Write the structure tokens for this entry.
Amino acid sequence: MPRGASTCTAAAPARRTLIPFGRDSAGMPVSWDLSAGRNLLIARDERLAPPSVALDLAAMNALSCGTHDVVVLDPHRRHGWLTGLDARQSAACLSAVTPAQMSRVVTELAAGVVVRPRLLLVADLAATVAALDARSRVALTDLAVTARERQLTVVATTADTDPRWFPEHLIDAFDDIVAPQVGAGRYREPRLWMR
């Protein structure tokens, strides 16, 4: 469990931090554990597919267990229940949907003092990068690369995981990648990027 994180309770074990993705071609369950502190990239097109259930589950688990503050960058406004939360409903959730809001949030995350672990959810990494100015792109990349030092876990979706479309080192900052296989409901095992 990340340093400074609280446990859910004895009645709600830490396994609530597991995010399921279905089964691989061998029928084995594929899941990712939020408490491991590893950055996750989910290969999917946020514009064409329904909103990412994995992002919503990660946010719900972090908020309900109180393990992380949650920050959401949602350029397509597909995760309305998260972006609709305000300080009265959840002081631990911050969201941004416009380019100006996303740039401000990225800058605040990069400069902020870390009090407790944070979870940065990026719904469509490519659209977010395109919406940010050059300075904010560098800050976002730096956040992802130095995430462990900042008690930050980054979970993002993108239609294309090819690093050439992103700032240098951004895609390499993701420890695990979950990509769909041929056939509905099937996913490859998360690929581990070794640094």
